[in-house]
């Protein structure tokens, strides 16, 4: 009884595998052709999930490697917005466009004004000096940092966790780059930059804007 090659996906007889590859077991064994670099190399498309031959990928996509390569069909298929029908050549452009359709239901963490489409927009409103309850520039940046410092769930997003007093106040000086992505460790000067990064790159919303 044969088995499927883990590389090309074809059903092969035992004679099509070396003893070493056969002993690795079903789901791991690779046939002679694939081990020797023959013309039957296959991999699953990172977009559609189908197991396709190298001829069904452009050279550029193939060399991106397993788990990243997208087949020609997926690369050439435009992404459509289910809200307005506009089409885009890649998923990133579609996700950027989808922000246009978000409801304005996020509130400013300082003044409570609820008219923003994302947490990044709300924090930018403070950092740019648009908030009625705090001045712009460094003072606004400091207010945001102190607000975030009081939320335990935000501590994993901060490069340094400040010491709080008994009544929850923070008197430490704000670092130059106080925020950090816990997934890829990129540091940011402004919280709005971290919020935008988390939303667009990791599809995550930070917990600080759930309440005032």
Automatic annotation (TrEMBL):
Residues 79-106, 179-207 form the C2H2-type domain. It is found in: Nucleus. Keywords: DNA-binding, Metal-binding, Nucleus, Repeat, Transcription, Transcription regulation, Zinc, Zinc-finger. The keyword Repeat applies. SMART domains: ZnF_C2H2. One of its GO terms (cellular component) is nucleus. It comes from the Eukaryota. Belongs to the krueppel C2H2-type zinc-finger protein family. This is C2H2-type domain-containing protein.
């Amino acid at each position: 009884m044969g088995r499927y090659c883990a590389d090309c996906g074809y059903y092969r007889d035992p004679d099509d595998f070396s003893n070493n590859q056969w002993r690795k077991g079903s789901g791991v064994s690779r046939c002679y052709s694939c081990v020797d670099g023959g013309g039957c190399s296959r991999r699953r498309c990172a977009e559609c999930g189908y197991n396709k031959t190298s001829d069904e990928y452009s050279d550029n996509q193939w060399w991106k490697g397993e788990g990243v390569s997208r087949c020609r069909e997926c690369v050439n298929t435009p992404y459509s917005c289910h809200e307005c029908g506009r089409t885009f050549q890649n998923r990133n452009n579609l996700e950027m466009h989808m922000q246009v359709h978000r409801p304005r239901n996020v509130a400013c963490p300082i003044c409570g004004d609820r008219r923003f489409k994302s947490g990044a927009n709300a924090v930018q409103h403070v950092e740019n000096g648009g908030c009625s309850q705090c001045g712009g520039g460094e003072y606004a940046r400091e207010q945001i940092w102190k607000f975030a410092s009081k939320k335990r769930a935000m501590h994993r997003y901060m490069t340094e966790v400040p010491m709080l007093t008994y009544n929850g106040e923070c008197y430490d000086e704000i670092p130059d780059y106080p925020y950090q992505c816990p997934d890829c460790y990129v540091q940011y000067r402004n919280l709005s930059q971290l919020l935008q990064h988390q939303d667009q790159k990791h599809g995550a919303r930070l917990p600080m804007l759930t309440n005032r």
